[in-house]
Structures
1.
Amino acid sequence: MPNIMEITDFSAPELDIYARLTEVQLLNREHPEDGLFIAESPKVIERALDAGCVPVSILVERRHIEGQARDILSRCGDIPVYTAELDVLTRLTGFKLTRGLLCAMRRRPLPTVDEVCKDARRVAVLENVMNPTNLGAIFRSAAALNMDAVLLTPACTDPLYRRAIRVSMGTVFQVPWTFLGDDYISRLKNLGFSTAAMALSEDSISIRDPRLAAEERLAILLGTEGDGLAPESISACDYTVRIPMSHGVDSLNVAAASAVAFFQLGLE
């Protein structure tokens, strides 16, 4: 049975998770075993629960308790469920809840690069992608377009930031992912991957080049917004790959480029 608790005091410490803690504070880098994240909307929360994430508490608009939140509440045991009308929740959190439901959940330990790549044939590698909206969109494309995993450099935004989770539609819980260390391109090659840098270069090949599709294992590298991949990363890769453009357009947003690359290079 859910433990329903009406919100009467905005300053109550148990509401800090939703109202006052920053994403960095939720991450808790000094004690990652105590880290939390916020999942928003029923579909996203369902995918997090399906992936084995453990709920800590829920913030829900009152009218959804017996509506679209009912099935989720039934899966969460007797954790605290804080509720009020939508205008109260909006004042508390500072934003309008998507479909009136937030869930605080515990972070799971990240897998190793070897674990994520063990059976993978196509992986997306994100270098310093810092915009949560772009990151979430890339994860959604990776899930839809046959990427087996996503690997991120340490400067990338956290895939479990609330906005990244929401934009991904919860696919951050479906696609295996982890963070890379230094000299990551050599690491990928040692794991048997050929590497393809998505970049504009004089020696780049078309994304339609049949050699790319023929690779047994391929890592597709995408760079940060604006600057793209670092020159040393491009030079270390086996291929430099371009998406053919028209009408004088020289490049796509990294999220849009990822969808094109995953569609063309993913394996069904």
2.
Amino acid sequence: MKEKIFSAIDALEPQMIDTLSGLVAIPAVSPLDGGEGEYDKAQYLAKKVEELGLGKPEIYNSNDPTAKNGVRPNLIVKIPGKSEKRLWVMSHMDVVPEGDRSLWDTDPFKAVVKDGRIYGRGSSDNGQELVASLYAAAALKKLGVTPAYEVYLAFVADEEVGSLHGIQYLIKEGLFRKDDLVIVPDGGNEKGDFIEVAEKSIAWLEFEVTGEQVHASMPQLGKNACRVANELSVALDEALHNAFPETDELFAPSVSTFEPTRRNKNVANVNTVPGREIFCFDCRVLPHVQLSDVMKVVESVVKKTEEKHGVRVEVRKLQYEQAPAPTPVDAPIVKLLEKALPQVLDVKPVVGGVGGGTCAAYLRQVDIPAVVWVQEADVAHMPNEYSVIEYMKNECKIFALMMADE
């Protein structure tokens, strides 16, 4: 049966290329980024689903008055299986804007097929996976194969700017069960061997030190915010690393990281002691550590600095997301994907975590074990974004094997 599935998918390659090219031609940019949303793309997909004999998709509209027709649509395609166990493959319809068009060699919203690739905005992120999941189901339908699970293809909105109208909306609608098998194909590598089951918490912190600006020849008359900021940055670095030394081999690096990053411009001339200094830390924290505990350390160091130097320090949270507990490495969805991967790719699956920021976190937050996986080139959001046709077919075969549990 496996070889029949693979042959059917190979035969569908021209249709897959045509469908992805059609998706590229529909921008589906969030209204927050100056676009109209996913309405037109959802209409295109709904028609394609019916053409492939997969029935009429259910549409869950999240209200958004700034989007075309006032809605952000989410499509759900249900395919009956041999059991009541449910397998979800969840890809997203929205794309980021094209950015600087002068950096593109082709029109970002007109697909170009060349050298085994499909160029265009959204071709890789996330059109490749959307098409792969759709045609995996179509291949099984063509062969008359009933999936081992009840398959749910979810084509969701709003992933690029927070998933409020997408995954988060569907969770609030009560579409998921605790025992669902969920794969979110929206992150991976070119080998296709990495299965993401966890992410770190993220805290982006901005520190503003306010002292007193004076002439640099008379520093005793002021309070040098630059010197205090330097000292505070070093003290925070040392205190945070000392407070949270734990390791978790799921991640690379295996430790929580606390990195001083951005430093804002202060004064324009050399001979002025700055009275204000702003700098940032990017903290990626192992999920078992509470960000509230991180903030206690930060607040303690800040208070000592203020008392020592007689300055004021304001701390702002630019991003602050506590990561949910990881998906267990032996979860059924992990095992199902581990079983399928070596049948298509010459790889040994690697299960691990990332630095943070996948939409699978919303599912894990409500105790639904989800995994993230793709085989893709790392070109998302870049000019001249492309999908590798061979990778798309590989994904299609893996999804089909998971659906059939072959």
3.
Amino acid sequence: MFTKVLVAEDYEIANQGIIKILSDKIGIHNIQEAKYCDDAYLKFRKAHNEKEPFELLITDLSFREDHKIQTRASGIELIEDIRSIQPDIKVIVYSQENRPDKINMLFDKLHINGYVCKGPDAVKKLIANVGGVYQNNTMRPPEITNNTAVSTMIHLDDLDMLLLEELSHGFTKKEIRTKLIKQKISPNSESSIDKRVSKLFDNFKAKNTTHLVAIVKDLGLL
């Protein structure tokens, strides 16, 4: 079983609850906690530099603002920075987020090892996640493993991502079309671009381009 764990959670009750589960239910006693991402990162770096690295990171996604300026404001940034130094550290996200697209992104882009959605069964799920991740299993939650969730997933191809990227930079559809033609990327007709963008609006239920870009960035897709 894991012997050294870092917990990043800004709510004291949740933080202590996780520690109690790890200690009493699983038998892990070398646990350090942090209420902010920067604090968690500093504790991670200290342990790594002393060649006594953490084996598991359990982190929330969102953190309350502090009076100090935080370099890392979210769990996503914390995971990315820690993984850039210690790629093999196991990561379990413990969050209220229950949108399948957002959770799926965490597995696909950040390659997290487990996910626990806060709720009535969170204790059982966390215990199962820690055990499963220790056995090198990927612990995907029911939110993205049942058929209903999978059918509502939004799958984006390279052209979709390119369009979103260009829209986020303020380019119009005509300007994007010109770029696609110059880069010899197809389809690049006005109608095909209109259809793609309209489909993105429908998929993300966006009211306008600004709203679409905001939603996609919130999901961590850009």
4.
Amino acid sequence: MKLEEVKNQVRPADRAVMERSEKHWMSVGKPLFSLGKLETEITRIAGMKRSSRYELRKKALIVMCADNGIVDEGVTQTGKEVTAIVADNFTKHMTSTCHMADVAGVDIFPVDIGMERDVPSVTKPEKKVVYGTRNFAIEPAMTVGEVWRAIEIGIDLVRQKKEEGYDIILTGEMGIGNTTTSSAVASVLLNEQPEVMTGRGAGLNQKGLEKKIRVIEDAIRKYDLGAYVDSDADTGNDRVIDVLSKVGGLDIAGLCGVFLGGALCEIPIVIDGFISSVAALCAAKLVPVSKEYMVASHASGEPAAGKVLDALGLSPMITAGMSLGEGSGAVALMPLLEMGLRVYLDMSNFEEINVEQYEVFDKEK
């Protein structure tokens, strides 16, 4: 699917439905606005779904699994073999997110979009773009064609899950080295210095962090990515794809497609942490309206995470110091959303509970 086709088919969230949702919240028999962001997100999701009454019964977590050639530069604490091990463990119910998903009622779908080796329990040839990206310290991570293929796979996965009856889709990733790729992409797209946008990932010491920053800085110079100036999202399409191809990862590109697919299929997509928020930023740069179908789950521990969400105009629902990735933050949000939805759908109104309707007053009066 060509980008122009996506742009032409995507519609903004339904403002009229959101107004009806806000009006309904005003009638619910509780202090006005007392559920804070829960009320806001329940209303936003109503606009995405174009219905002021909806359910979130079926929840899917798509975990994009991919390896990154930049790991060869020693920017991580562990080796690339861990990606395949953890991807396989998703199918064996042996990851932290699996246990969290049990509580939240979330179905997990790991996708081998670019691991260095096949994992029989996960790998499907039609979903695999290439066997890991190249080392961007030496050569571009991907071709433009590989980036687009990953995006298309993400879009197709959302279509499939929508057809299977899923009401909401969560994003996750597994790929050693992907905080390096994400920091590089975010640095360029937000015109920030890598030292500001780069964190320790899964536990680098100070020396390792300094090397990681240096590797990103060198790549930005090598590919002249610093020559980009902040541009309007509508005219930055080539820029996004070029940045992804030079210093990005297949998991980021695939998740970018998931966010675009959410806008196309009018289904909410939940951002997990830093890596998926960078994918969301890429999607928003390509198709600005796609932001209206994104829900931010939590404030990641990576230093650039807040800057990326600010650029998207989104506010995280949870602040818990989480940095696990793998979709864990997105999964953690689900019980909260469902609790808010139950109040929204099932609670009596003021008349039914014999309480006088609250009024909205100007705080200065």
